[in-house]
Write a structure and sequence with these properties.
This protein is an alpha/beta fold and 201 residues long. The protein is built from 6 helices and 9 strands.
Length: 201
């Protein structure tokens, strides 16, 4: 989604772990005002201008929101979430729909980090301004200031979570082995997992 589309929307941030905290910082920096954090656990550090819903019933009022920022910590195939999947947005989508530079996307089941790092080292050695974004370290909205900086290439390691229901616009894509993994997150379905991966094409 374009950043302007977040203004005057009721936005929920689903799960307040690393990516959820990053999403909140980012949206506050963009001047978004109607923000609610949803998490089963109690949240100690709270912003005065953000609403928080915690406890066992934290998913009970999802119909109240226009946009739900999903998190890798919770599967979108949970029974309470399934009716609202059309409202889901990820940091990956926000990045791709607002960043104007060239992106190389890499995904498969085992080996993504190794190839991403190797490609990064090669391009940097060749003199390119290149940025590496892994899928398990800092969230992309912490890594890329796409308001001001355009690199020659961003190398983005993409997980099935990032590619679920979304096909990114890439300069180059790399897809290798796919075999059953993380199926508990994908409704115990290898087909759902595989279809998420091939969205990179």
């Amino acid at each position: 989604m374009k950043l302007a589309e977040f203004k005057n929307k009721r936005i929920a941030i689903l799960w307040f772990w690393k990516e959820g905290q990053s999403s909140l910082r980012f949206l506050l920096e963009q001047g978004v005002q109607d923000l609610t954090v949803l998490d089963k656990s109690d949240i100690v550090e709270q912003h005065d201008n953000v609403k928080y819903v915690t406890g066992e019933n934290y998913l009970d009022n999802l119909s109240d929101f226009d946009i739900i920022l999903k998190s890798p910590g919770i599967s979108p195939f949970l029974e309470k979430l399934l009716p609202y999947r059309e409202k889901f947005v990820s940091q990956t989508q926000i990045f791709f729909e607002n960043y104007t530079g060239k992106v190389i996307g890499i995904t498969w089941t085992k080996g993504k980090s190794t190839l991403s790092t190797l490609l990064y080292e090669c391009l940097e050695f060749a003199g390119y301004d290149v940025k590496l974004v892994w899928n398990i370290w800092s969230p992309v909205l912490d890594e890329i200031d796409f308001n001001w900086v355009v690199h020659d290439y961003v190398i983005y390691e993409l997980s099935s979570y990032m590619l679920q229901d979304f096909s990114p616009k890439l300069e180059i894509w790399v897809l290798n082995n796919i075999y059953p993994c993380h199926l508990d997150w994908h409704f115990d379905s290898y087909n759902i997992y595989r279809e998420a991966k091939v969205n990179i094409l």
